[in-house]
Amino acid sequence: GTTLKASAAEKGRYFGAAVATGKLSDSQYVGILNREFNSVVAENEMKWDATEPQQGRFNYTGGDRLVSHARANGMSVRGHALLWHAQQPGWAQGLSGATLRNAAINHVTQVAAHFRGQIHSWDVVNEAFADGGSGGRRDSNLQRTGNDWIEAAFRAARAADPGAKLCYNDYNTDGVNAKSTGIYNMVRDFKARGVPIDCVGFQSHLGTSIPGDYQANLQRFADLGVDVQITELDVMTGSNQANIYATVTRACLAVSRCNGITVWGVRDSDSWRGTDDALLFDRSGNKKPAYTSVLNALNAG
Ligand code: G3I
Fold first, then answer.
1. Which are the contacts of 100, defined by CB distance < 8 A and separation ≥ 6?
2. Is residue 44 in contact with ligand 1, taking CB distance under 6 Å?
3. Which residues contact 143 (CB under 8 A, 6 or more apart)?
4. pLDDT tens digit sequence for 196-240
């Protein structure tokens, strides 16, 4: 293939990008998006603060705009993110206990039901594990409602949109480490107890190196009976950038249950990482060496 989406499709994978819907009026941005990508995810517009700014009053403007752009252009949509400790609306930040739990589960139900049938994979819960060596949960208002908040969210999401793959999504899970192993143990437990989980998202916000066991880590999750997806890929600029992008691409292709790759933005100027210049297109919209390296990796074999 000659584009990311065509080459990924030849290997049975999708190739996606995070989109800020405000940029859908930027013709250079949309030109690259429509040419190269066949999956999109809202960078912010499907998060809790955006979709339920006041309790029980839902706003789907941005999310609907993205879904409509995707449908018109033959793209599928990842959903991000139903529950997260960050980007909660102010009203939710002020709740606790059973009141918060009920509000959170209602949020999952309402949002998943609104987009029912239109999302290929939902990040049901985002970033619930702690960094460092504990392997345990991150403290948050949601976690303080009880350790079962994650499984309650997955059950509610399944009931609201039975056709979507339901993912757990996190960062700093790029190799076998305490955090990824904590998540691995949760997924194993969910599968054993019939909690509906279908996939694990590996954000893959990477610096100037990548753990040597990146692929093996994906594989150990796949071996639990879930799909894996690279969900927010971006890589620090520098002499390793193109190689790291290729390594991630090859790892996904080598793991049969890896469904696809999403990069967290289109051009370097669109990235949350600012001067890291972490994406595949430069600030003028030109293909970078990292782009060519991903395309070649997709086309290899
Ligand atoms: O909504 C306000 C807007 O009203 C205001 O005018 C504007 C002024 O700066 O700020 C807007 O909010 C910003 C929002 O993005 C939308 O642009 C927030 O300040 C800003 O913090 C927020 O950043 C997002 C960040 O998540 C928040 O945690 C980034 O765009 C987004 O790329 C980033 O994405 C996360 C994933 O969801 C989860 N994994 C990590 C990843 C990178 O941090």
1. 92, 141, 142, 145
2. yes
3. 85, 128, 137, 149
4. 999 999 999 999 999 999 999 999 999 999 999 999 999 999 999
Residue 301 has pLDDT above 90, yes or no: no
Q: Return d(Cα 8, Cα 258) in angstroms, integer.
A: 12
Residue 191 and residue 224 in contact, taking contact as beta carbons nearer than 8 Å: yes
> Other CB atoms closer than 10 Å to residue 89's CB: what's the count?
18
**H or E stretch covering 170:** strand 165-170
- 232 CB less than 6 Å from ligand 1? yes
Distance 168 CA to ligand 1 centre (A): 20
- The Cα 235–Cα 183 span in angstroms is 23
How far apart (Å, rounded) are the C-alpha atoms in residues 125 and 120?
Answer: 15
Query: Could you report the per-residue pLDDT of 8-23, keeping only the tens digit for each?
Result: 999 999 999 999 999 9
Which two tokens mark 182? Answer: 């904590």
Q: Which phi and psi (to 5°) does residue 79 adopt?
A: -105, 130
Dist CA 250 CA 153 (whole Å): 32
* Tokens encoding 290: 């990292």
Cα separation, 219 vs 41, in Å, equals 24
- Give the Å distance between the CA of 46 and the centre of ligand 1: 12
Q: Could you confirm whether 232 is annotated as catalytic? A: yes
Closest to 237 in 3D by CA, of 258, 267, 213 = 267
SS3 content of the chain, % helix, strand, coil (to 5): 45, 20, 35
Residue 35 has pLDDT above 90, yes or no: yes
Provide the token pair at 103: 């509000």
* Alpha-carbon torsion (184, 185, 186, 191), positive or negative: positive
**Residue to probe by mutation, ligand 1, list 44, 80, 170, 174, most atoms within 8 Å of CB:** 44
How many A from CA of 44 to the centre of ligand 1? 6
